[in-house]
Design brief:
The protein is an alpha+beta fold. It has 2 domains: 2-81, no CATH class; 115-176, SH3 type barrels. The protein contains 7 helices and 5 strands. It has helices spanning 2-29, 31-35, 42-52, 54-75, 84-98, 100-115, 166-176; strands at residues 123-126, 129-136, 140-144, 150-154, 161-163. The protein has a 5-stranded antiparallel sheet. Helix 1 (2-29) runs antiparallel to helix 4. The mean pLDDT is 85.
Amino acid sequence: MPNRLAWAICIAVVGEILIRLAQWRLRKAFEPVMQRDLYLDAAERVRRRRVVLGLPLLLSRMLILIVFLLIIVRYLGFDTRAEVVPVGVAVALAAVLIFWRPLRDMACGYFIMYDGLYATGDRVTIGEHTGVVTAVGLRHTRLRAPDGRETAIANSTITDVTNHSSAREMERLTRET
């Protein structure tokens, strides 16, 4: 058993190295996306980077950890196919079915942030709503209308966006440089 334990530790080290390499590669792949938010203020830029880059880093880390944990458990002599995998699949399916709508909103919110469609402070038209963006979250976007009303729009319902302020901001930045 000590020999198997030593090999399990070696497998864990290889897994950690793989996680580091995957995260390095993801950071390199997301560099062009992160360059797009240079015109945002520092707080908004940090918030956007935390979501746009943090989510893929977290998911890749979790996936690699789960795979290597299953490899280690199997190497130590436990049958993962009989108990762990079917239970894990059942729990994952149940979670997706239970949280379908919030997951869909979060996926759409992620891509809104990834694409940089709008940011806090931009004047936008989303569907029939027009106003200034007060908050961009994973699940919803908040707009303050000219009459003072604040509207929360679920990100999964956003299909048509017109950003009235991003063109002016880009013009100002090109004049400054």
